[in-house]
């Protein structure tokens, strides 16, 4: 067995110390920047030094319902991501080594709690602004307590199988309570803040006391999504996260229903369309995005001007159509797949554009019924063209033109490539003014 010299040990310890200091410095920079951004946003929205004002567009009951729905969405995202996550090597050493695992993992819980508390305060200020509330500090306390409670519930769900099974029911009950809140007058903010703060303290204490008993599989449950999100943020490409979500959906266990052999042969175009439909039947991301987006369009048409409802329809249509065009993206990206199918490129492109066209048509009909027929035509045509232009873009290049400014480097060429498809939404927004 080879012996390690003292010099090698000293060199390894120095390398690890420098890596730890670099990681701590990076976390401090990102954390300080995020907190500074939230502080500046709250100062701008306060209107004291900037004179920023906004006419009320939502009632108190509607703003309460929106806040409850956002809390349920945050709980769902944290439940899917983790929130505590480590890579395989770190998980192996944490589980195997005789270390205080609770102390090692507490930093991540504190970071998530601080981020959700700041986000809750910011969302509470925005909802108070659009609802015309005169005093928003009690609502800020409600948002902060709700953020801390969401993190505590997500951590409990990662530690215990009982809590993990109960969290979907909690999310469903939260959404139902949001619907009830639209019909009933809002409760006092001070009472809500008190109840949520007590629940958050109890939940955080329970989650912190059980950190040492967290399972190995729970630590790596959201590592793929965190890595994909980090890569997508670095390369300005949301495709990393979409691919990770699709891979997770295909790995999910589900019922297998055998289909008998058809009495007659199915044409190639029909077979490709059926395969694309089966992909979205297995992955529930598209129905969730479509239903949520259509609800946002109807809500925007009820509480805001028709133009802004059309803009919301543009955004919803682009996101939903992009989610429906995953098969179209895969077909264009894999030349060997197109060669093996032995079909013309136009035939395959047309087959894989059936589902995105149906989604764009659904959003267009909803916008036409809620706003106007012209808005529906603009939304349907603009979103479909923007998605096709975005999916047919060449591979992204990251060594193009970049401008060095006093605030840092601005990747002009990368921004141009990112806006290849979404840039057409600005054209659609201008056409909605006609």
How would you describe this structure to a colleague?
The chain is an all-alpha fold and 434 residues long. It contains 20 helices and 2 strands. A two-stranded antiparallel sheet has the order 1-2. Strand 1 and strand 2 form a beta hairpin. The longest helix is centred in the N-terminal third of the chain and has 41 residues. It starts with 5 loop residues before the first helix and ends with a helix.
Label this structure with key terms.
434 residues, mainly alpha, two-stranded antiparallel sheet, 2 strands, 75% helix, globular
Lay out the secondary structure.
Layout: H1 6-46, H2 60-81, H3 88-96, H4 101-131, H5 137-159, H6 161-181, H7 189-209, H8 216-219, H9 223-235, H10 239-251, H11 268-282, H12 285-303, H13 306-324, H14 326-333, H15 335-341, H16 345-352, H17 354-370, H18 373-391, E1 403-405, E2 408-410, H19 412-418, H20 424-431
Antiparallel strand pairs: 1-2
Helix pairs in contact: 1-4, 2-4, 2-5, 2-6, 4-5, 5-6, 5-7, 9-10, 11-16, 12-13, 12-17, 13-17, 13-18, 17-18, 18-20
Please sum up the structure shown.
This protein has helices spanning 6-46, 60-81, 88-96, 101-131, 137-159, 161-181, 189-209, 216-219, 223-235, 239-251, 268-282, 285-303, 306-324, 326-333, 335-341, 345-352, 354-370, 373-391, 412-418, 424-431, and strands spanning 403-405, 408-410. It has 434 residues and is mostly helical.
Which class best fits the helix and strand makeup?
A: mainly alpha
The average pLDDT value, as a whole number, equals: 77
Query: Roughly what percent helix?
Result: over 70%
Low-confidence stretches: 24-29
Strand content: under 5%
N-to-C series of helices and strands: HHHHHHHHHHHHHHHHHHEEHH
> What oligomeric assembly is this protein in?
single chain
State the separation between the terminal residues, measured CA to CA: 80 Å
Compute the number of helices.
Answer: 20
* Radius of gyration from CA coordinates: 25 Å
Report the count of strand segments.
2
Reading side by side through the largest sheet, how are the strands ordered?
A: 1-2
């Amino acid at each position: 067995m080879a012996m390690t010299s003292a010099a090698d040990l000293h060199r390894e310890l120095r390398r690890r110390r420098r890596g730890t200091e670099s990681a701590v410095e990076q976390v401090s920079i990102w954390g300080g920047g995020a907190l500074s951004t939230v502080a500046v946003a709250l100062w701008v929205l306060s209107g004291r030094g900037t004179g920023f004002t906004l006419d009320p567009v939502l009632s108190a009951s509607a703003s309460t319902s929106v806040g409850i729905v956002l809390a349920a969405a945050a709980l769902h995202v944290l439940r899917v991501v983790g929130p505590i996550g480590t890579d395989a090597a770190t998980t192996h050493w944490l589980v195997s080594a005789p270390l205080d695992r609770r102390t090692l993992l507490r930093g991540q819980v504190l970071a998530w709690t601080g981020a959700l508390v700041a986000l809750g305060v910011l969302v509470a200020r925005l909802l108070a602004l659009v609802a015309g509330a005169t005093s928003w500090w009690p609502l800020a306390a409600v948002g902060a307590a709700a953020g801390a409670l969401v993190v505590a519930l997500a951590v409990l769900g990662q530690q215990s199988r009982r809590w993990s099974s109960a969290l979907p029911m909690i999310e469903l009950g939260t959404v139902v309570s949001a619907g009830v809140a639209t019909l009933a007058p809002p409760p006092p903010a001070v009472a809500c803040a008190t109840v949520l703060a007590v629940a958050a303290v109890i939940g955080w204490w329970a989650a912190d006391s059980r950190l040492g008993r967290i399972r190995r599989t729970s630590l790596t449950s959201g590592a793929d999504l965190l890595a994909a999100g980090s890569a997508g943020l670095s390369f300005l490409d949301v495709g990393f996260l979409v691919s990770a979500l699709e891979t997770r959906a295909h790995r999910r266990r589900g019922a297998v229903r055998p289909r008998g052999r058809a009495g007659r042969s199915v044409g190639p175009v029909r077979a490709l369309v059926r395969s694309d439909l089966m992909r979205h039947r297995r992955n529930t991301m598209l129905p969730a995005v479509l239903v949520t987006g259509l609800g946002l369009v109807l809500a925007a048409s009820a509480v805001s001007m028709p133009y802004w409802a059309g803009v919301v329809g543009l955004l919803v249509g682009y996101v939903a159509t992009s989610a429906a065009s995953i098969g179209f993206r895969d077909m264009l990206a894999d030349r060997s797949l197109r060669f093996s199918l032995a079909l013309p490129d136009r035939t395959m492109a047309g087959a894989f554009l059936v589902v995105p066209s149906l989604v764009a048509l659904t959003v267009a009909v909803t916008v036409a019924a809620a706003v106007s027929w012209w808005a529906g035509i603009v939304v349907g045509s603009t979103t479909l063209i923007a998605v096709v232009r975005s999916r047919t873009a060449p591979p992204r290049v990251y060594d193009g033109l970049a401008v060095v400014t006093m605030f840092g480097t601005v990747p002009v060429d990368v921004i141009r490539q990112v806006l290849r498809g979404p840039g057409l939404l600005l054209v659609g927004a201008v056409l909605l003014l006609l």
